[in-house]
Each structure stands twice: as structure tokens, then as C-alpha cells.
Design brief:
Layout lengths: L2 E4 L1 H7 L2 H16 L3 E2 L4 E3 L4 E8 L4 E9 L7 E9 L5 E5 H20 L6 E5 L5 H11 L4 E5 L3 H11 L7 E5 L2 H4 L5 E4 L17 E5 L12 H5 L2 E4 L2 H7 L1 H9 L7 E3 H6 L8 E5 L4 H15 L2
Helix pairs in contact: 2-3, 2-11, 3-4, 3-11
Length: 306
């Protein structure tokens, strides 16, 4: 028996964003089908330490992730993802920060592919931190971009991000801003990847048709989206129990009476439902669930433990 340890370079070389999106999509379909045993994650010190696990029944495989978060350091996320399977003696240990960024991007790719108009190509990304690059890569993988605007309170950080992504986005118009309200006015897709505790923009700043992804707020004390946006949109969430416990946006909107629980659709159910008209405004809210990590870990295990 041995443990294979893989870091960021190996993970990035082994798994493409398209592969990650496909794997996460299949995982959410399996989640909707009852294939997973997935406890709600354990959060300590108001989310600074997280423990997540998922067991996939049909493959008898399991993933365990432990990590710590500190937005004052780089990288902000450190920890490990461990994969094991009853049919294999070897197990895999992967860098949690890289897996988290990749799987968070991938689920946004899944949701954007499902909910955004086919012709959408103008993306506004709010937040230029560690999760930001994979948000852009995932959206670009399912909706080829014509324009990218990166918004951050620190303009130099936004500029550094677009410069780093430029080689991956030939022909895409690259813009930066410090004003989220102005930057979303003509967006067709918006991605929010911040640690904000109050809405990033007013609902009135958005165009009549837009798809919004929000992945930054993962605790009840955090919010990126206004109640009015949730009230006037089709809202898809990663997993209802996790959202009701951890999503500040959803908790606030429910308590304010802006939405009801019946207005929330889980991603797995949306993926397996008959083709539906989701309306002109759609929102995907994710706090991150363990099946996403399982999906990436399985890809890595298949590549490194074959």
C-alpha cells in the first residue's frame, strides 16, 4: 500500500477544465439520483477550518477534505484532499487549495452551461483573488468570451489577473474596474468571487437578461447578492441543506420574505429535469459541497493510481 501525493503542478497538468466540468456535472446528477452519502461539512472558528466528506455508493469510493482558510495570507486555502476506494490498496492525497479552485470553477461551468443564454459572451468577474482565474476558465469553456471585465477594489490586482489570463484568452477584450455597479450593467454573465459581507451591487444595476454565479460567500455572515435579485430570478443552488445552513444571501432573503424555500432548485434536479425555460434572470448560488471535490479526486485517482 502506498500514498500518491500530488501538488498544484501535477493537478493542473493532469486535469483540464473541460474534464473537471464534465466530472462535476456527472457528480451532481449522481447526487440527485441518491448515489452519494454526503454529510453537511463541519465548520470551525466561523469557517476558518472546514472538514468535508463524500462516499459514492456505486464505486465504493470516498473523499475526505480538510482545509484552513485565511484571506490575509497567500495562498488563502491550504489543506489536503484524500481519496480512497475499497477496490484499491493505494490512496491519493492532493493539494486542497488547487482542488478547491478547480472544482469551484467547474461547478460554475456546469451552472453557466445550463442557465446562461447560448450566445452570452460578456463576463464581469467581481473579485480577483485565488478563486478568480478558474471562474474565468470555466465560463470560457462553456461560453466562449468576447469580453472580460475584472472588478476589484485594488485595481492593480485586477490588472494583474487580466494580464496573467491574456495568453489563454486570445481575441477577448480585457477590461478592469473598481466599480461593480457600472461593470455589471452590460454583462451577460456575472461571477462573484469575494468575501463580501454585503451585496456587491444593486439589483437595478443588472441588465434585464443576465446569469449570475455567486461562489464567494460561504458563511451566514457573508453576502454577495441583494435580496431583490434573488426575488426576481430563477435561483439554482448546489445543495439545499448546505445552502440553508451556510449561505448568507439565501438565509437573509428567506428571513426578509424575499424568497421561499420552494423557489430554490438544486443543481442536480435542474440538470435532470426536462428542458425548461429558466427565464431572463438566473442565479446560481454555491457554498461548495463535497461531491465536487470527490469528482476532481476521482479524476486524479484514475490518472495517478491507474
Amino acid at each position: 500500500m502506498k500514498a500518491m501525493t500530488v501538488g498544484e503542478p501535477e493537478i493542473r497538468e493532469a486535469v483540464t477544465m473541460k474534464e473537471a466540468i464534465d466530472a462535476v456535472r456527472h457528480a451532481f446528477v449522481d447526487l440527485a439520483g441518491g448515489e452519494f452519502e454526503m454529510p453537511t461539512r463541519t465548520a470551525l472558528r466561523d469557517g476558518q477550518f472546514l472538514v468535508m466528506s463524500a462516499h459514492h455508493r456505486s464505486t465504493a469510493s470516498a473523499m475526505f477534505k480538510t482545509l484552513s482558510l485565511n484571506f490575509e495570507r497567500k495562498p488563502a486555502i491550504t489543506g489536503t484532499v484524500t481519496w480512497s476506494e475499497t477496490g484499491r490498496l493505494d490512496h491519493l492525497i492532493a493539494d486542497a487549495g488547487t482542488v478547491t479552485a478547480l472544482r469551484t470553477g467547474a461547478v460554475v461551468g456546469v451552472a453557466t452551461d445550463l442557465l446562461a443564454p447560448p450566445e452570452a459572451g460578456r463576463l464581469t468577474l467581481i473579485g480577483a483573488g485565488g478563486q478568480a482565474p478558474d471562474q474565468v476558465r470555466a465560463v470560457h469553456a462553456v461560453r466562449p468570451l468576447r469580453q472580460l471585465t475584472v472588478v476589484d477594489a485594488a485595481l492593480d490586482r485586477a490588472q494583474a489577473l487580466v494580464e496573467s489570463l491574456a495568453p489563454e484568452l486570445p481575441g477577448v477584450e480585457l477590461l478592469t474596474s473598481t466599480d461593480a455597479g457600472s461593470a455589471v450593467r452590460e454583462a451577460e454573465i456575472v461571477c462573484c468571487a469575494t468575501n463580501a459581507t454585503s451585496p456587491l451591487f444593486p439589483e437595478s444595476a443588472l441588465p434585464a437578461q443576465v446569469h449570475v454565479n455567486a461562489i464567494g460567500a460561504y458563511r451566514p455572515t457573508m453576502r454577495e447578492l441583494p435580496d431583490a435579485l434573488l426575488a426576481g430570478s430563477t435561483v439554482v443552488v448546489d445543495e439545499l441543506d448546505a445552502i440553508l445552513e451556510e449561505s448568507g444571501e439565501i438565509i437573509h432573503a428567506l428571513e426578509a420574505g424575499a424568497i421561499t424555500r420552494d423557489a430554490l432548485t438544486e443543481l442536480g434536479a435542474a440538470l435532470t429535469a426536462p428542458t425548461a425555460d429558466f427565464g431572463k434572470r438566473t442565479v446560481f448560488k454555491s457554498v461548495g459541497v463535497a461531491v465536487q471535490d470527490w469528482a476532481i479526486a476521482r479524476l486524479l485517482a484514475d490518472k495517478f493510481l491507474a
